[in-house]
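We now fix the convention by which a protein and its fold are recorded. The integers have meaning only within a learned vocabulary of local backbone shapes. The record below shows the convention in full.
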Amino acid sequence: MRPGIALIGRLVCLLAGILMACAWLPAQAATTERIVVNRFSGVAIEGFDPVAYFVDGSAVQGTAEFEANLWGAVWRFRNEGNRASFLAHPEIYGPQFGGYDPADIARGVTIAGNPRFFAIVAQRLYLFSREANRDAFAANPERFLYEVGKRWPALQEQLSQ
């Protein structure tokens, strides 16, 4: 076998191995949209049920069986009741600021929240990129929301529709 062909064969195998390894990584959330969604599937908040945060007080994975399309995103729920509640009141159950971390927005940047780090304050759902951000927000939500109120309109304009 010629040395050049052997080298190409090794490179192809190496590339295939890298691609297979990357298949196990979670898909990244888009951060140029008004609602944080998976850029490949269009699923919002990594498929977690937004109503379950209120009903169960925890992050619960939704299923493809109970989906709804709203605001350009696919939302998943664990049952039909949660789906119906969300569709009746999406402004309550949907994550505030499109799922972006309010602690980061207060600093002037849009970073997607992680659905596992959440807080419900004044009957609204907030998602955070890090646990430390959630804890800081929970200690003084009024301060963060004041800063967010000043920065969010300009940041939102930078996000595509």
Q: What stands out?
A: Confidence is low (pLDDT under 50) at residues 11-32. Residues 3-22 form the longest helix (20 residues). The longest strand covers residues 63-70.
